[in-house]
Every structure is written in structure tokens, then in C-alpha cells.
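We store chain and fold; example below:
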Amino acid sequence: NFCYSPRTNQHSCGNPNNFCELVVQYMCGDLVRDGTTTNTIPENRFQCDRADCNNDMEYGMHENYEYYKECRARQRNKGLYTADQNMKEEAHSTRQNNNGNRRGYECPEERDYYPYWHPTPWRDIVVFTNEPERCNYYKKESQNVKNKGYCKYPDNFLAFKEAKGQKAHMMNNKEACESTQVEHGGEMVTPKWVETGSWNSAAPDCLASPWSRDNHHGNNKGGYMNSYQWTVPDDIIHKNCVMRLRYNITSGEMTNNRFVEPINHEFNAEADDQPTKIDIATMHGLPVENDRGYYFKQDPVVEVFNFENKEHNKKLDLEVTLNTNQFGRTFEDRTHVFEIRKRPSDIPANAVIHNLNVRGKRGNIVQTYPGVEYDFQPNILEMNRGDYLHAQWTGANSNPGNNAGQGRAGTDRSNMVLLRERTWEKEGEEEGHGCYACNYPVILSDDINFMGLKKE
């Protein structure tokens, strides 16, 4: 069962401009939902219906309330590179999210780093990397095949702390977990380190990152959007599933040593007014300790020209617009809820099913950016005799009200019609992908049908 997932990414992949990795995952759950409002699900459970945010269907939810609360209380990984950012102590604070901003119930530390070291509800589909030699590592560390550890506290530990108005502190590693005690139910107890979470499924696919250019939400070299053909698993049947795509970009300053020397906490600034220990100077032929400002820090001022007699020449200083929380950062996008259904009983188990979807939304080219106006996905689909086609698409009632198009403002609807056959012979794979004067639907007759449906 093939599902074709198109994508664009703002920053380049598969070329030397930066280091890029993309991770595609999915999750399913009984309470996973889109919700009926675009307001963010509350962090304070008493703002939800019956103080139960997990079951308040007004709000969309992927990860659940307890997942975020544990992240909010868990000590962040102190071994990570945080540059010169002012960090909070918990896992909701990361270098690119140092103030702990919340988006749904996701854990910012888990969002920004892969593979993550604690259990998550996400299953891996595919990893794209600029360095395919890292694939064995990604496959081995995937939660698809490996348990992840976490510090298990007594049941309702966080709820009791919340009821008392107390802040909880949870450990993030085995040694600290097993050497700490917490008060619970009037007595001191020791948490337990638990290894769990493996999905016991195949390791994710891992491929070289396909080429894309900088600052361009568009097609690849072949004229189509980069896409991945996902074989939908037949052992997961669920009505509430979502997919997410994350991509990490890392600038050349970080990857000068091709990650031979890990970028970790040892490169962090020692104080707020100090630069990081990322070596920029030697890349430009200067000593590490220099007086020309070539340091990796927030908005450095550098002296480009080396005047021999500075007393008689004016300096030319340039400020480099550099935000250390964005040099090496993760972007994320998620889908709405979709359903994975059981294969119909009248379709052979070994038959291939191709999913044909509609992508894009109502509006003109500017209004739909960085998406597109309506189009098929995949744009070109070639099948073998005996394959099956599953055509499906959806609309929306939350499209911007002033977007161009016909019909009631704010709605998004599409349909599918059969056009007449191509008007020239297909001479090669990249030729003959259209036809002239094919804007009107073909007239259905006894000799022409649309997906098996004749005019009667």
C-alpha cells in the first residue's frame, strides 16, 4: 500500500551549502485528534472540560497531557550544545527554544533532537541524511527496534505535586534516577529506571538527502517536488494517526570537522558575555585568540581589514547577524489526522495499492504559498496491470476567508474529473506529460469510463 508524501524545505539539502537531515515519523492513538478550534490545548488542566484535557475534544491533541508534564518536569540533557543561550533547567528548554515556549503537548527537547533517548509515541518511517554513512547508527538507535530508558516515578507523582502547588523535578539518566529519593504519600521512595518503548518493528528506511536549493519551496532538479513512497504498514490499523516531518540544518561552521569531534556542552560559552568555543578563527587563517572579533557568538562585530597602523586609519567593523539558537536548528510540520484501514477482503494480500491524493488548497499562487494551488499527488502515477488505485482527498472549513476561488468564503472543496487523452505521443519519460486544449471534462460514453464508472 503505497502513500506518496511530497515536501519542500526552505533550506538546502543534498548539497554542500549546509548539513541537512530529514526525519519522517507517524503516530496513532485513540485520543489523537484535530479538535474543533485552532486554540492551543491548555497546560492548566482546570481550563479543560472536567479538568481532563486528554478527553476535551474541543482541542486538537497529538502527544498527551502526561507526556508534556513529564517533559516539563524532567531535567534537560546537560550534555548538549547550548551555545551562549540562557537556559532553563527542564527538557522544555532547548537552545532554539530556551524560554520554554509550548506548542501543544510536544516535548521541545524531543522535537529538536534525533534519535531521542527517552520513549516517545512516534514511529520512524524514513531518515534522509547528507551523510549516508550515519544510516547504520540511525537504524540501530531507532525506537522501532530499541527500548529507551526513563526514570519511573510513583503513580500520580506529578498529580500530587500539582495539587500541592509544588514543582516536580525528575531525573533524566539511570545513575541520577537510582540515587535520588522523593517524598510521596508521606514516605521517601526511590524511582526506578525502566527500559521500554520498542515498537518491535522494522528499522526505518535511511537514504541520502535528495537535492534541493536554498530559500526555495519548489521542485527538485527533475521538475517535481521531492517525495517519498511510504509503504503503509499492514499491522497498524487505526482511525487516528498523524505524520510529522522534521528537518535539521547545520551550518558549515558546525560541520567543519564532519562531526569527527562531537558538538556538545564542551563548546558552550563559559559566561553570558563570552563567545562559544566553536573555532571560527582558524577557518579564516587567524589564531583562536584574536582581536578582530572572529568568534562564534551572538551578533559578533568583526574587523575585516587588517590595518598595520591603526592610529592613522579608521577601522571598518562589520556586524554579523548571527543568532546562535538558529545555527543548527530543527523545523517541523505535522499533518491532520488520517486513518489506516484494513485492506478490503476482496483485494489480494500481495496486490499493490496506490494512494492518489489531492494536495494544495484554495487560493491564488501567492495566497497558498508555501503550499500550492490544487494538484494531484503523485502528479504522475504509472501503475502495472493488476495494481489498485485508492483515490481520496479532503476539504476544510478553515481556509482564509479572503482567498481567491469559487464557493462560500473560508471553505475548501475539490473534485475530480476525467480529461481527454493526451494530444501527442509520449516519446520519453520527461516528455508528453500533458496535452493541448484539455481543460474541459471528457464526455463519458459507453466506450469511456472514469475509474470503472460508466455514464449510466
